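Lab notebook, design round three. We kept the backbone fixed and only want residue identities now. Task for the bench partner: fill in a sequence for the structure below.
Input structure tokens:
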């Protein structure tokens, strides 16, 4: 194999690759000898078929198979020999090939740029801690208690009112005919929420236990059986029970029902939960700030093919009009993503950062444990989707690089109250929104056509 640089311009490199026919023929003969031991041909004993007979019958197929193998092997070796890191799959162009001929082809490669890492000493970031007061913890627990569906039976003669829970069976008909899905058992609805079928709740007001009630309702537009959507149906309801809401008592038993040891343990758990909620948002803000600083101090050339790929990803769900409208904005986002990806990757490689199989397994296990009742589905999802596992590995790798940057940067620890944390997050979102509006206003306005200008002048 012989490799020569045909041309090089910026990050684009063209290589010429030559493989002599002798090498190709040797590989073809090796493959034919392998086939001779397994293929049966009439008139020859198993394993004793002459190579020239096989060549006549299977020569073209074997040549195609060998050619594909040689192209894979030699293109990888060509990149290795010239010490080229390809940004994506190189374009291969066959120039001359064929049975009994030398192989000549070219590789068009978009190279990954060389990233010159800058010192991280001047990068500054804030590490936040959230202090949650007892009153704020109590308020959250009271909210949880308020949202608990705690109902007790009403007396048999008491009528249903808004806020009550009505339990019923029903049989529904359309034009006096039964239909698929037109019956239900032990249905429970809270009156006033209107969550079952629009207008259904109101017709159950004043019902009593053991009463039968007819309800007329229009089936929703998104009814599973499309042929019945928007049809009027009569629901014959048998009221099984009427229950009234009862205020949940916040005590040790309430805490145990939520999985805590006692009320004091629940307060600790809720306090940590509130802290973590705010810390996640604040950590994301810190990470964004760090990455902005990292991007600012580095200069990186962006490979064309990576930019095209990222633009496709960003705009894949947009219509053509939207894609054109946001092209410049999306290009800016794509360039920043690629730039940061290349810098973070270089930082990781230079510092020999890796994600071990054990670390990956532990993270999957964490996600499995955080989804009670769905552990099996989560585990199967990662087992059956290698791309999901690769994405998770990438996220863990990025986290390691961010932690490395933090170690080398200047940290400022800051403790915030819950109100201050809320204010800071709100201000950050507002600033992002304002920044987006500024970018939109900076876009060039369409010029008024000369013909339209003339019309306006004439009117005057």
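Proposed sequence:
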């Amino acid at each position: 194999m012989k490799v020569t640089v045909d041309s090089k311009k910026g990050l684009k490199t063209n290589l010429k690759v030559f493989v002599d026919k002798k090498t190709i023929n040797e590989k073809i003969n090796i493959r034919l000898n392998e086939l001779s031991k397994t293929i049966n041909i009439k008139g020859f004993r198993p394993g004793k078929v002459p190579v020239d007979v096989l060549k006549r019958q299977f020569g073209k197929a074997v040549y195609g198979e060998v050619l594909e193998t040689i192209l894979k092997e030699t293109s990888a070796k060509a990149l290795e020999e010239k010490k080229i890191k390809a940004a994506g799959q190189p374009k291969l162009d066959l120039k001359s090939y064929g049975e009994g001929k030398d192989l000549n082809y070219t590789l068009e490669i978009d190279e990954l740029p060389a990233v010159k890492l800058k010192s991280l000493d001047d990068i500054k970031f804030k590490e936040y801690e959230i202090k949650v007061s007892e009153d704020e913890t109590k308020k959250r627990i009271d909210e949880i208690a308020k949202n608990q569906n705690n109902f007790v039976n009403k007396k048999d003669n008491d009528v249903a009112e808004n806020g009550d829970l009505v339990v019923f069976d029903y049989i529904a008909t359309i034009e006096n005919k039964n239909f698929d899905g037109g019956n239900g058992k032990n249905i429970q609805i809270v009156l006033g929420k209107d969550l079952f079928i629009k207008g259904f709740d109101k017709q159950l007001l004043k019902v009593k236990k053991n009463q039968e009630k007819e309800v007329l309702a229009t089936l929703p537009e998104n009814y599973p059986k499309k042929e019945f959507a928007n049809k009027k149906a009569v629901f014959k309801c048998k009221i099984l029970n009427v229950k009234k809401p009862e205020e949940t008592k916040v005590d040790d038993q309430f805490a145990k029902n939520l999985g805590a040891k006692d009320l004091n343990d629940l307060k600790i758990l809720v306090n940590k939960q509130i802290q973590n909620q705010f810390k996640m948002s604040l950590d994301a803000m810190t990470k964004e700030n760090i990455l902005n600083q990292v991007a600012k101090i580095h200069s990186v050339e962006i490979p064309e093919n990576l930019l095209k790929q990222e633009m496709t990803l960003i705009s894949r769900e947009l219509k053509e009009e939207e894609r054109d409208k946001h092209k410049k904005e999306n290009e800016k986002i794509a360039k920043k993503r690629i730039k940061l990806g290349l810098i973070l990757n270089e930082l990781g490689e230079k510092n020999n950062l890796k994600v071990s199989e054990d670390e990956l397994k532990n993270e999957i296990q964490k996600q499995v444990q955080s989804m009670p009742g769905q552990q099996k589905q989560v585990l199967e999802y990662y087992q059956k989707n290698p791309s999901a596992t690769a994405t998770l590995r990438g996220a863990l790798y990025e986290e390691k690089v961010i932690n490395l940057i933090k170690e080398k940067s200047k940290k400022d620890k800051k403790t915030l109250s819950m109100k201050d944390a809320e204010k800071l997050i709100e201000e950050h979102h507002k600033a992002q929104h304002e920044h987006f509006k500024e970018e939109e206003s900076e876009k060039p306005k369409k010029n008024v056509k000369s013909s339209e200008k003339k019309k306006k002048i004439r009117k005057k």
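Keep this in mind before ordering anything: Residues 445-460 have pLDDT under 50 and may be disordered.
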